[in-house]
## 1
Amino acid sequence: MNYEPQNIEKKWLKQWVENKIFETNVDNAKEKYYLLEMFPYPSGKIHMGHIRNYAIGDVIARFKKMNGYNILHPMGWDAFGLPAENAAISNNIHPAKWTYNNIENMRKQLKKLGLSYDWRREFATCDPEYYRWEQQFFIDMFNEGLAYKKKTTVNWCPNCKTVLANEQVEDGKCWRCQSVVSNRELDSWFLKISDYAERLLDDMEKLKNWPERVLAMQKNWIGKSIGAEIDFKIDGLDYNLTVFTTRPDTIFGATFVGLSVKHPVVDLLLEKSKDKKNIKAFIDKVINENQNVAEDIDKEKKGYFTNFYCINPVNNKKIPIYLANFVLMEYGTGAIMCVPAHDERDFDFAKKYNLEIIQVIKPKDEEEIELPLKEAYTGEGILINSGMFNGLDSEKAKDEIVKSLKNAKKIVNYRLRDWGISRQRYWGAPIPIIYCDKCGIVPEKISNLPVKLPEVDHLEKTPKPLDKIDSFIRTKCPKCGKDAKRDTDTMDTFVESSWYFIRFCSINPKDKPFEKEDVQYFMPVDQYIGGIEHAILHLLYSRFFIKVLKDLGYIDFDEPFLNLLTQGMVCKETYRCKTHGWLYPEEVEDNKCIHCGSEIIVGRTEKMSKSKKNVVDPDNILKKYGADTARLFILFASPPVKDLEWSDKGIEGAHRFLNRVYRLITNNLIYFKGNKKNSINNKNINDEAKNILYNIHYTIMRVTRDINNFQLNTAIAAIMEFTNFLSQINTETLDDECIDLYTEGLSTLIVLLSPFTPFIAEELWHMIGRKTFISLEKWPQYNKKYIVKDKINIVVQINGKVRAELITDANIAKEDAIEAAKNNDKIKKYINNKKIRKEIYVPKKLINFVVN
């Protein structure tokens, strides 16, 4: 019998749907497990990155289902946004038609992969039935003062022709199209995420199983700073300039003040200045440059002397005021005291502009810092050159100095700015606000929701296209009934993705955003899977949104995702011709461009990208090899958290392995005739039977442990080793007892393989005579007594010195050996409260912990 994946996969897809294998409902008798991958944007075709993300999630979902959990595993579409609108403009098609056509195509592709989704729960965020509730949430926030409109300087993308949130500007460029971002002053809507800064920080304690990298990125973005606000009087003017500093202990070393070009006092300085032209030119230049310069230590720091001075309140010294491109109005007060001796940025600036550098902190070890300073000393220490505070510990001096000043106070500051959600494009959820000459800004009536997007015959790539649709703009005031106008901005698409996971809990409710009972059962998400690129944008916004919905009474929890896995990217080598640019692999022969014969330039291995022409078409893979092969390769080639390098040889190797498994089972079907599931626990078994038992239970243990630890590649490796073992057995020499165990091994192999390659597993399961769906089988349990072989001694060292010996199983895994060593009473006293810098493991012989 030949392995024919296309026929097998088509057959079982139909069977799973007809028998509703993956449909899930609330079942209070079972423990729930909500597994969710970040839903895709319907761009038209899935890519290998999608397949990797969803295959990882599907393994966990199937595994948990077989372990008795009630699995919620849904799929939907993040369907609003600029790509759809731009594509519609280019192709002269309505964005809705473009989007729903893409959804239809991508849905078919995803179903071919055998992903265990409950498709009844599917929705697209551009469905009015979905964004109608989003509009209601917005109105609730408006009524609570959490949504507000103000004129402000915003990030403007000239290509996308819309506003970007601060989080959507990366290195001064649009996160989506990489155009250089400029600044504009516009009326925009904001959500008060800054009001939740402290809760967002505090609740990170609940996120025990989030990657440290993601938590660090969010903490840095929120940017909590504990410091002080101190008034510096401007010499010659009746004006106190309030600065924010995290290091009031260094105030005696402040030798200049840095001022944002957007600070309100700048107008006063300009009015009094004799250097208006040059100051104005510097201001305009800074405003037009990258506003993230303050966050980039590699960017050149620039300043301009205003010809004004401040009075340092601790010593009455006059210090110059500089306009500086690294001071942001959005952080602190827009003015900072600059201490070159104890801040690297200030040190470089002082050197550049020949400003005074005064050391006021020395290290606690009494070592003198060589003068003149070659670099800033940024650590803690003892105060010097600080008047009455000399000799004081710098940490204690922070409080003492603030207390001694009349116009100073302790304060907590945050880098986090409010979330700007206004977008000046068509394809988004309309903001449900009406402007009335009599009543002012008025929210739409709840009963009138959804405020639907108007139909359009043709779109142009222009700002605020809804401004041009008179039938949409003109309406009646919900309060007084007089003529009024609608807001013509649409919401940032990250609003839609900030609550979609709650909507999945209920099956398309019509008269409410979700059934509260469903949400209470399924939420929070037990395992969330997606890319590290969403660490701030999507993940931070979602955490904020959930806290708001809790405060509004919609839900009773305040963190959406208990566990987070950030999978690596799928990468492939790139090829480039000096004449023809990026080339597809089929455009390269003998390391030459087929178009011109030039030697190709082999680029680095990079994320698959259409622009780099290094993509692999999933449809071609599925057509040639089948979904199981695609899944197996992408799960085996690399640990989930690491980047995966595409390999044509790897995909062929995965296919050969599945053919091998298929032959192994079909060549031994004769042994399953009349075979029943055996009970071997109470048998007196011979050495050959013991060896089969050992390999069965040892493999179950390894695969179970590795799936639980998301080491899916090593779980597959264990299955491959088990396949090799079973293939090498000469069945003709086995007695009846061993034949029973052998068939048990074959059936166990099929079950262990099923989360990874469900189609072939389902086919083989029924071929050996099983009547149930393999997805509904219980996951096999291993018995420890069958995996105990010989005992060995492992020496345990601390920094190279022997401190203990472990007596353990000869087959113990590395992770288990290290864990046992750490729990050894003799070792605990050497590693408690110390950081283990390195763990050295020599299999079956030695463990060495290198500690501080």
Note: The chain has a mean pLDDT of 91.
## 2
Amino acid sequence: MDANGTRFLILDAAADFTTGDGCVWQPRLSGLVLAQAQELRLPATTPAQALGVWQAAGPLVRDDFGQIGRLSPDRSLFQVARSWTTRDEDFRPVLAAAEGLAGSSAREAALDPVAAPAGCRFTDLALGGEGLAVLGWSDGASRHGLTLVHLGRRWQASCGVAFPPRRVLVDGANRCWWADDTHLGVAWGQPLPAPYRPRPERFEPAQLVPRPLAQEWVQGLPPGLALRGLAGAGQTRFHLARLAGGPDPAGLRPWQVVASRTLEPDPAAPFTLWPVDPRVGPATDLAVPPDGRLALLVPREPGEDPFRNRDCPVVTLTDTGQRPRALLAQERFPQRSQLSPRFVGGLDGQVRYLAADGPCRLLPLAQARYPSQGTSGLPRPLDSGEPDTLWHRLELAACIPAGCHLTVEARVADSPDALSRADWNRQPPPLRLRRPLDAVGPGERFEILLQRPQGRVRQLRGRYLALRLTLAGDGRSTPVVHGLRVWYPRFSWQTAHLPEHLHQQERPPAVTPAEPVPANAADLRERLLAVFEGLLTPIEDRIAAAEALLHPATMPRRLLARVAEALGGPLPIGWPEARQRRWLAALGQLQAWRGTLAGLSLALDIATGGGVGRGQVVPVEHYRLRRTMATILGIALDDTGHPLTLGTGLSGNSIVGDSLILGDDSSREFLALFAPELVARAGSRAEETVAAFFDQASHRLTVLLHGEAKAQQPLVEEVCAAEVPAHLLWTVKASDHPFVLGLSPLLGIDTYLTLLPPARPVKADRSRLGRGDLIRNPVALAPELAPIP
């Protein structure tokens, strides 16, 4: 809402615009663009030919080191080769520890080949999750199951399932999905992270493995369809099953459909069926590219030499008008050659196909080609909530290159039925603005005053507003509409500030005249005043929110340094903007507390992004390192705020420090700490003891760093140099482990609650035995073949 009380609606997401009529929403650009219109070269394979090559094809996977995994020719072993090859002798078995071995002997510690159970054959193979390979197996009769292999930890686990796994998948949560023509199933679990041998002389858990790999549930698939592929992406994206069935009702093309469901482990989750564009031939596999669309692999035509019709069809799942469809993208994804009708699986999220020289990434053709124009509208009209609303103006965040233009049309009515019959009113060309347009998106800013193209009264009045955008280009570039902001109702200066006889006395016509009709004087005057209103209202908004220009949380960044200088404190250069704003907000408090421990702690907390509050930066005055008896009467030894013990010292008779005062020296040190005036009469020796004590423990400060704060040591030193009083001696110490400093060295436990940082790889001249660095296998099909980083 602006200073005049005018409200607005923002449209800046894919769900706010319709697609399919030459326009699409491009996630990479976060905007509405023209759909590509390249001339596709799609194979025209028959269903029988596609089924034959699909049944004969075997799965292939590729790890991040370029190693190739496959099933052996007899489908009894999981094999790996250093790189792509067609020679069987170049493949070796993938090795992993067999399930249930304790690893206490050399024989038990050896890795075994990943093989199908006796009498069974592997049916499919896939990679996914945190580095897992899942293999389906079956004996063709009653025994079916899954084998899960962790490529980094080198273990394998198996479980039985209810039906043969024709296709398998591992999602981002390490769940195993498998399917056949009629059912979909999910299995989950893994063995213990380390070998464990039960002992009869002690109590043991009834189930040694908390969650072994096992089938969770089974769900029926939509009937009448034959499975061809299985694909998924991430943890919250769709789980996609590629299904192909018989001919369509017209009997023209083989009917193909994509069935999708969420990846949530819910056996009752419904499926959505997306009919595939009939121009796509019978596909034998599918994959999800990084942009979220769906790539369908259609086998090459038999005998096609050279390989001409080589484009891989990519479809977009849309549900415009409550009609789910898989629309073919008019964008070329060429293949150099095709040796397999199946995609090559991997862990990096890229889609690869098998060419003559090995797995190749499926990439779009770099040269774009767009249609001359495309049209997009709104899935539903905008509702102001009030009848006879006077719609004001339209602001756009867009990029309109040379040779491109954007046309906006609008229609209004007081009911949805009347809106569908209303005329479209073409709006004036967008006017480029120089002022920023917040919260709508990137790109340049444009403005349109909503109006009818002609008539005596050119207002757009009605409760509902529908918009239609026409994007036009030169074939090589496209406009990009990132977002719209629609303002309503109009604050008319003419009605608010001029005499009543100058107001608009007529109503806009129900239908815009076909022939040119000049506007009356009141309408011309209103639109003329709206030009000035559009320029001056943003200035009024800034004046109305002038206090935001001086508040540290909202002021423009360019003013931060000036305001800090006016308050007497220079703004630290090079800090993140959020940290600079917090520093400025606390500048008065820092000046009031300067020279105190509280002031230093606040400054360090701001400088380190909350390091003091998280316990990663601990300022310690050296006199706090002394510990005395809690049994001394009249002395409060509450250590709730003690930076070293954090309230854990319940009494002086603890393992933290001395618990008794023995001898004169200890007595003098104690008195020097709590009552130095009592030893002033004890002679020179006592004075020397007091002086030595103060020299060791007073006017000294240590700032301890651990965790993420270790990387900020130069910044901490800079703050200490500026904030610590000159008579104090200070030092900064970094620690490798997080702990509550007064407890961990004495108790031998980790007492600081934080996320455990990942272990680093072992490195010469840095790693220490038993101090966290680990030697780990790379996530590879064959770690011994992977290059050493």
Note: The radius of gyration is 36 Å.
